[in-house]
Structure formats: structure tokens, C-alpha cells
């Protein structure tokens, strides 16, 4: 089977490539310079291109990555399936799990801080206007070699280099974390046989910073919290659709932390990811 991974140099993209090759796909990975002239049949397309921490500094590039380039590719290429990687960040103003279901209305207030959210939603709208295109909204993805600009990636880097770390937010802060192994496996299954147009890929549970720190201390590391740190709790992500259609049973970050630490320290490889 033919597959094209767009954004293959990123954390999600390179893990998608690894997974697909393990499933005997013939994978093409166009570079940035090739995207402007890309045409023809791309097979199963995985659109992993995106801006993350730099979106405030580069808002125009963010819109181009999430929607502009996408629009041109949807117009100039053909494909067997097309999967667009969006984000559960768009649920930032949700107040409960019922408001993070895929079909629930989404509230976003336009501002410089919501350029990321709104550009992802524009990308989703373009996808939903095009037959054969599906959307996955990813939660906070973890795995070996994840970006050091993420909370968890930065925390692991500090621990393996200094043996200790300070968390700037309070112990009560929480996020939904999903394993990259779960992401790539579900993405391929959705591309092949998904019955819906949009899916949340998340763990469905919130992991508190305090629970992360407790596990790290059990592994022999020093992990403290800055006095007066802000408490930031992201909304719980509804994964009922994924569980119902694919019998999805997500991995747990707390159980994977020890092997993530070993991988970050160049020790034994994290067992959750195909090598």
C-alpha cells in the first residue's frame, strides 16, 4: 500500500512513518521544497504539518501550515484516504467532557493566543468540505525523543541532565496525555476504516502534575513545585467514539514514565514504540 506522510520530520510524522513501514506500506516523505509542486495520487495521506510553540511569533506561517498549504494539496492531489492531524487544544474553553465530544459546539474567542486553535479549525472545515478526508484531534502526545519545548519533554530533559527539576505550575495542574504508540496505531486504523469524519485521540483521563512528581520521586529523582505556581487544568477529553468503534484502550503515562526516563537518558528503549 502507498502512503504519503506530510511533516515526516516532526515527532508525530516520524513515528507515523516508522509504524507504516512496519506494516509494509510504501511510504513517501516529501520535503518542504517539494510541497509546492506536489501532484498526483498520494495513496493514504497523513497530514502532520503544523506549528506548535512558535505560533504566536509566526501567526501567518501558522495559518499557512494548518490551512493554506492544506487547501492547495486538497485541490491538486488525489488520494485513497486523507487524515488531517488537528488538536484537542481547540477545546480550551470547554467546561466538561460532554463539551469535548467530536460533534459538540466549540467556543473560541479570536485573539493572538487563539491563532493556533482557529487555524486548526479552518483546516478541519476544509477537510470536512472534501469527500474522503478525516480529522483526528490529538491530545498531549508523549513518547521517546519528544520535543523539549513541551512540558513533559522539558521535564525529562532536566531530570536526566541534572537529576532534579522544578515544575512551575501547581501540583493540582493536569493534562490529558496520550502515547505516541496509541496515536500512530489509531491513525492508521482510522485512515483505513474509520466510519466517522472526526475522532479525538486521547487517553480520556487527566494526569495531575502531582502524580507525575510522585512517580518521578519513586524513580529516585528530585521534583519540586515553584511556590505560588498557577493551577492549570485542561478539560477532560471525550473518547467514547474511539472506544466504541475501535475498542480503544489507551496506555497510561504514569505507567510509562520509568521507561520514558530510561529512553531520555539513553538507556533501554521505551517499549511502547516500534523501533
What strand order characterises the main sheet? 2-1-4-6-7-12
Low-confidence stretches: 267-275
Q: Oligomerization state of this entry?
A: single chain
SS element count, helices: 8
**Class of the domain at 2-141 and 178-204 and 235-252 in CATH?**
Alpha Beta
* Strand segment count: 14
- In the CATH hierarchy, the third-tier topology of the domain at 2-141 and 178-204 and 235-252 is known as Rossmann fold
Percent of residues in beta strands: 15-25%
Q: What is the CA-based Rg, rounded?
A: 19 Å
Name the CATH superfamily assignment of the domain at 2-141 and 178-204 and 235-252: NAD(P)-binding Rossmann-like Domain
Average pLDDT figure: 93
- The backbone outline, from C-alpha atoms, is globular
How would a crystallographer describe the biggest sheet?
Answer: 6 strands, parallel
InterPro entries: Epimerase_deHydtase, Lipid_A_modif_metabolic_enz, NAD(P)-bd_dom_sf
Organism: Roseibium marinum
Protein name: Nucleoside-diphosphate-sugar epimerase
Pfam families: Epimerase
Please tell me about this protein's structure.
This is Nucleoside-diphosphate-sugar epimerase. Residues 4-202 form the NAD-dependent epimerase/dehydratase domain. Pfam families: Epimerase. With 275 residues, the protein is of the alpha/beta class. It has a domain at 2-141 and 178-204 and 235-252: NAD(P)-binding Rossmann-like Domain (Rossmann fold), CATH 3.40.50.720. Helix content is 36%, strand content 19%. It has helices at residues 11-22, 59-76, 115-128, 151-162, 180-193, 209-218, 240-246, 253-264; strands at residues 2-6, 26-28, 40-41, 44-47, 77-78, 81-87, 133-138, 140-142, 164-167, 174-175, 177-179, 198-201, 207-208, 222-225. It has a six-stranded parallel β-sheet with strand order 2-1-4-6-7-12, with helices on both faces. α3 (115-128) links the parallel β6 and β7 (133-138).
Amino acid at each position: 500500500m502507498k502512503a504519503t506522510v506530510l511533516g515526516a520530520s516532526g515527532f508525530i510524522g516520524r513515528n507515523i512513518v516508522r509504524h507504516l513501514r512496519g506494516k509494509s506500506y510504501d511510504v513517501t516523505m516529501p520535503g518542504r521544497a517539494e510541497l509546492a509542486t506536489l501532484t498526483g495520487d498520494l495513496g493514504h495521506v497523513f497530514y502532520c504539518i503544523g506549528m506548535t510553540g512558535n505560533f504566536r511569533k509566526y501567526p501567518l506561517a501558522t495559518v499557512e501550515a494548518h490551512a493554506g498549504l492544506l487547501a492547495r494539496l486538497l485541490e491538486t492531489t488525489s488520494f485513497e484516504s486523507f487524515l488531517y492531524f488537528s488538536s484537542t487544544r481547540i477545546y480550551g474553553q470547554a467546561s466538561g467532557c460532554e463539551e469535548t465530544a467530536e460533534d459538540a459546539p466549540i467556543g473560541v474567542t479570536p485573539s493572538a493566543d487563539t491563532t493556533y486553535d482557529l487555524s486548526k479549525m479552518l483546516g478541519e472545515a476544509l477537510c470536512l468540505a472534501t469527500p474522503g478526508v478525516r480529522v483526528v484531534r490529538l491530545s498531549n502526545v508523549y513518547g521517546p525523543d519528544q520535543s523539549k519545548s513541551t512540558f513533559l519533554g522539558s521535564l525529562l530533559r532536566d531530570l536526566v541532565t541534572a537529576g532534579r527539576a522544578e515544575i512551575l505550575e501547581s501540583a493540582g495542574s493536569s493534562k490529558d496525555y496520550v502515547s505516541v504508540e496509541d496515536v500512530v496505531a489509531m491513525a492508521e486504523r482510522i485512515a483505513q476504516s474509520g466510519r466517522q469524519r472526526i475522532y479525538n485521540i486521547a487517553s480520556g483521563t487527566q494526569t495531575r502534575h502531582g502524580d507525575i512528581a510522585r512517580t518521578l520521586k519513586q524513580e529516585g529523582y528530585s521534583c519540586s513545585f515553584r511556590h505560588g505556581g498557577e493551577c492549570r487544568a485542561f478539560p477532560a477529553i471525550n473518547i467514547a467514539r474511539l472506544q466504541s468503534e475501535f475498542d480503544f484502550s489507551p496506555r497510561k503515562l504514569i505507567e510509562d514514565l520509568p521507561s520514558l526516563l530510561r529512553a531520555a537518558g539513553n538507556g533501554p528503549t521505551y517499549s511502547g514504540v516500534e523501533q
